[in-house]
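Homework help board

Subject: predicted structure for assignment chain

Our instructor gave us this sequence and asked us to write out the predicted structure in token form, then describe one feature. I got the tokens but I'm not sure how to describe them. Can anyone check?
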Amino acid sequence: MSYSVGIDLGGTNLKISLVDNRYKIKDKKILNTQNFVRKEELISAVVNSVNSLIQLNKLRKSDISGVGLGLPGPIDNKKGIVHFFPNISGWKNVKLVKILAAKLKLPVFIDNDANMMTLAEYRLGAARGARNAVCLTLGTGVGGGIIIEGRIFRGSINAGGEIGHMPVNEKGPKCNCGGQGCLETYIGNKVILEKARKIFGKNITLEETSRLAAKGERRAKKLWQDVGKCLGVTLSAIVNLINPDRIIIGGGVAKAGSVLFDSVKNTIKERAMPVQAAHVKIFKAILGNDAGMVGAAIMASEAGKI
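My token output:
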């Protein structure tokens, strides 16, 4: 049996998995991204983790078809270059594929992390069977991936699909990407958490606010309804623009559940054009926290031809 390595790098966690040729995770490691201050430290953590997974599972490098990485920012997947990461400093025009391939002595492929979540949900999850789909991952940042006619849409320089950096407001907060009023500045998990702490006047987790909202607590419900409305307004524009069959929403913020999803659905119904709004279906991602790793492993096993 052959294996591939799927890696999902986020602003909070670095997740590395060993995946078999049926796309089942055999083993994985999860590290805290914030433990690695410098770019070189993060690269070393990736290399050491990949080598460790191979050794612990008594495999050889020849058993590994490739290493795929889903990364949190604009990527040139053809040239193997990281343009930059909005939420991780120190990365600008990094030739990451060249660096990792030299250190690992394995084929390496990179893409945007939301594209990898999108690929996994399209092949194996909630977007399976759709011809046109939009997938979002809501966490530290807001990632987006787009499937058009069965293929990932990347744009002219392979940097498209940045739904989290669509401007919501003409004069909104400054975003880490350099823009202003981006969706991410309104519904990134740190922003929601800050609002929650102001509302409740104490330290509180997003999980606690979700539980309170599910029980009908007025302030918690409004918090998540407002998040859903903001997201729904942005998605209404996307629904009008590309007329998708399905929108898939995943990531930690999506765990808020029905209070969030109902608000998104109602906003799209109110704000999108009626024909497109009636057609699109909204689903929660079903592959959970593993989606990015699985998508990256699919990319690696297919030598980046996705």
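Reply (TA_rk): Your tokens look well-formed. For the description, you could write something like this. The CA atoms of residues 15 and 30 lie 5 Å apart. That's the kind of observation they're looking for.
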